[in-house]
Design goal:
binds guanosine-5'-monophosphate; 5 strands; binds zinc ion; about 110 residues; about 25% strand; about 25% helix; HIT family, subunit A
Length: about 110
């Protein structure tokens, strides 16, 4: 997708701090962190949001969570706890229409979700 920020990051047209990469996902540090640890697990394929995920992507969805679990351990927040979030659409507060999961931790997070 030509105008997609995350596709540009994936193509290395835009810089980012990559902390993990495999054939299905890339994980980068969020440019505007909302917690001491704030990572983004981004699918390599351009999928607009969870709404556009297909039944054939079930494995990919599980992989994203397993990568999140691994990174949480590596970043030392597995025991203290963390949050995994994907925003969908306007009311979900999705700013970048390319599927990504936020991994947030390193401090007690607020409980107010809306
Ligand atoms: P959304 O609101 O779509 O769920 O989250 C988009 C996230 O991407 C935001 O937390 C925002 O700070 C982050 N972001 C937007 N542009 C960039 C960028 O160019 N680089 C990085 N590393 N993060 C970005
Ligand atoms: Zn994209």
């Amino acid at each position: 997708m030509a105008d997609c920020i995350f596709c540009k990051i994936l193509n290395k047209e835009l810089p980012s701090e990559v902390v993990y990469e495999d054939d299905q996902v890339i994980v980068i540090k969020d440019i505007n962190p909302m917690a001491p640890i704030h990572l983004l697990v981004i699918t390599k394929r351009h999928i607009a949001s969870l709404n556009e995920v297909l039944p054939k992507d079930e494995g990919l969805m599980g992989h994203i969570l397993m990568v999140g679990q691994k990174l949480a351990r590596e970043f030392g927040i597995a025991e203290s706890g963390y949050r995994v979030v994907t925003n969908i659409g306007k009311d979900g507060g999705q700013a970048v229409p390319h599927l990504h999961f936020h991994i947030l931790g390193g401090a007690a997070l607020g409980t107010k979700l809306a």
